């Protein structure tokens, strides 16, 4: 991560230097006057300048998106930067419209899997209660629910592993997979 930041800073400095030199050369051509002999060279300089400007624009946009993501999600809220009624904050119990048909918003990857696990856990708990109250036929449903939940946990861990972008993330996933395996 630190190496990437150094490389990005190096690229930005290079872009800045090249951009300054290109602007100087364009200015000199414009001062001397555009002639048929320098039109092609001027066109190439303008193209280089445009490419650098475009790259700077997208780097700033990417940085802006990172900052927006941190301001939106860094405080534990989902939705439009914590605007009441548009998202959810942990502990407040308010939920936004994510996943509501027609609201224009999608679902997080894995969200459905977590909801299914929650539903199966409820079925598992209900089955255990039924079994403890003397309904011995509920044991099979309870075991099926438990089996489904545990399969879902492994699928969820596999999804996290596939989505991991760094070795650091992989190490953390492996750490908790080991904890689970040692239970």
Give keywords:
two-stranded antiparallel ribbon, mainly alpha, 2 domains, rod-shaped, single chain, 5 helices, 2 strands
Structure description:
The protein is built from 5 helices and 2 strands. With 183 residues, the chain is an all-alpha fold. It folds into 2 domains: 2-75; 108-181. The radius of gyration is 28 Å and the shape is rod-shaped. 4% of the residues are buried.
Count every helix, treating DSSP H or I runs of 4 or more residues as helices. Answer: 5
Strand order of the largest sheet: 1-2
Largest sheet, described in full? 2 strands, antiparallel
Task: Give helix and strand order, one letter per element, not per position.
Answer: HHEEHHH
Instruction: Calculate the mean pLDDT score and round it.
Output: 75
Shape: rod-shaped
Number of DSSP strands?
2
The percent of residues in helical segments reads over 70%
Proportion of residues in extended strands: under 5%
Radius of gyration: 28 Å
Total discrete domains: 2
In short:
The protein folds into two domains: 74 residues; 74 residues. 70% of the residues lie in helices and 2% in strands.
Helix and strand arrangement:
Elements: H1 2-32, H2 39-73, E1 77-78, E2 88-89, H3 111-132, H4 138-163, H5 167-181
Antiparallel strand pairs: 1-2
Helix pairs in contact: 1-2, 3-4
């Amino acid at each position: 991560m630190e190496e990437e930041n150094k490389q990005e800073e190096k690229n930005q400095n290079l872009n800045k230097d090249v951009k300054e030199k290109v602007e100087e050369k364009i200015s000199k051509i414009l001062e001397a006057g555009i002639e048929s002999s320098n039109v092609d060279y001027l066109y190439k300089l303008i193209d280089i300048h445009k490419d650098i400007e475009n790259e700077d624009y997208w780097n700033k946009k990417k940085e802006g998106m990172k900052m927006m993501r941190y301001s939106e999600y860094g405080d534990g809220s989902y939705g439009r930067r914590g605007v009441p009624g548009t998202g959810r904050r942990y502990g407040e119990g308010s939920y936004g419209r994510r996943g509501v048909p027609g609201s224009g918003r999608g679902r997080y990857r894995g969200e459905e899997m977590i909801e299914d696990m929650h539903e199966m856990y409820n079925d598992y708990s209900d089955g255990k209660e039924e079994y403890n109250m003397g309904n011995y036929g509920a044991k099979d449903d309870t075991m099926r629910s438990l089996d489904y939940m545990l399969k879902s946990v492994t699928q969820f861990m596999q999804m996290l592993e596939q989505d991991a972008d760094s070795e650091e993330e992989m190490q953390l996933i492996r750490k908790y997979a080991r904890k689970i395996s040692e239970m």
